[in-house]
Amino acid sequence: MIITLDEAKQWLRVDHNDEDSLINTLISAAEKYLVNATGNTFDSTNELAKLLCYVLVADWYENRDMIGKTSEKVRHTVESIVAQLTHCYDSTTM
């Protein structure tokens, strides 16, 4: 696991347990997205992987209706981190 529920809730500034199931689903989806986008697996020691998971979870949590476009800032952040994780790491450095 790259990020924990508690870490995600702290990042989201959520202090209740009502949406723990949703947040866990978003964490799982973010980690799968990372693997699918890079072809690599990462653990919690990789700070870029953690940051990408935080950004994805926050974007999906805050924009649940999926209406409209992803902000350019989020898109650029995700693309930049995915590129770095794809090209700057191999299976021995994760």
From TrEMBL:
Q: Which Pfam families does the record associate with it? A: Phage_connect_1
- The domain of life is Bacteria
**Protein name (record):** Phage gp6-like head-tail connector protein
- InterPro entries in the cross-refs: Phage_gp6-like_head-tail (IPR021146), Phage_HK97_gp6-like (IPR006450)
The record's annotation in Gene3D superfamilies points to: Phage gp6-like head-tail connector protein
